């Protein structure tokens, strides 16, 4: 499905699955506001939008909002915004659940440090330290590692690669510095704030 607007006589499309049509419309409304405020959007324009950087590409009879394909090398652009909207909806849903929690975004082109064993691990944790430019501050490791398992240093990974490798982790990447999220498989089990207080699950709730 596609949502569309007109910018200076050009049709601008945002393609996504039907369940994200409303979010695509909100994205296009935001682009309309940016266009009117200037500088005018055009093919080649890059837009810093939440989790992602978007680009406008020209097609013969319309323009398309594109998102990065983080798995390509060199990086290419996909003529859709599905991953961008999905990640932002996941993160917004978690923050709505947690209440008035400050957020600090991670962009898909920032780096994470990931223990190689963390992706297939039964239990994993994500801990955020200071953010510095392209370094998101996130370290992802193995929780409750088997006895005798040798911990390996984290290896840099683009955050955007998680959309294919481990999408469950994406929901917590807007948590602030000092926070820690604990996963059992793909299930978010616990969140601790910078003072080590458990803030998720909420009182009286379970994650089962």
Summarize the structure.
With 208 residues, the protein is an alpha+beta fold. It has helices spanning 21-37, 82-98, 162-165; strands at residues 2-7, 10-15, 46-49, 52-59, 62-69, 76-78, 111-114, 123-128, 135-142, 155-158, 180-184, 187-192, 198-200.
Give short descriptive properties of this protein.
single chain, 208 residues, alpha+beta, seven-stranded mixed sheet, six-stranded mixed sheet, 3 helices, 18% helix, 34% strand, elongated
Task: Please characterize this protein's 3D structure.
The protein has two domains: 2-88, no CATH class; 101-200, no CATH class. The relative contact order is 0.13. It has helices at residues 21-37, 82-98, 162-165, and strands at residues 2-7, 10-15, 46-49, 52-59, 62-69, 76-78, 111-114, 123-128, 135-142, 155-158, 180-184, 187-192, 198-200. Helix content is 18%, strand content 34%. The two termini are 34 Å apart. The chain is α+β, with helices and mostly antiparallel strands and 208 residues long. The strands form two sheets. The chain has a seven-stranded mixed beta sheet with strand order 10-7-9-8-11-12-13, with no helix packed on it. Strands 1, 2, 3, 4, 5 and 6 form a six-stranded mixed beta sheet that branches.
Write the layout of secondary structure elements.
Layout lengths: L1 E6 L2 E6 L5 H17 L8 E4 L2 E8 L2 E8 L6 E3 L3 H17 L12 E4 L8 E6 L6 E8 L12 E4 L3 H4 L14 E5 L2 E6 L5 E3 L8
Parallel strand pairs: 2-5, 7-9
Antiparallel strand pairs: 1-2, 3-4, 4-5, 5-6, 7-10, 8-9, 8-11, 11-12, 12-13
Portion in helices = 10-25%
Instruction: State the order of secondary-structure elements, H for helix, E for strand.
Output: EEHEEEEHEEEEHEEE
Low-confidence stretches: none
What is the makeup of the main sheet? 7 strands, mixed
Beta fraction? 25-35%
Number of helices: 3
Give me the side-by-side strand order of the main sheet.
10-7-9-8-11-12-13
How many domains, as an integer? 2
* Rg of Cα set: 19 Å
Note the gap between the termini.
Answer: 34 Å
The helix/strand class is alpha+beta
Number of strands: 13
Shape: elongated
Average predicted local confidence, pLDDT? 92
Quaternary structure of the protein: single chain
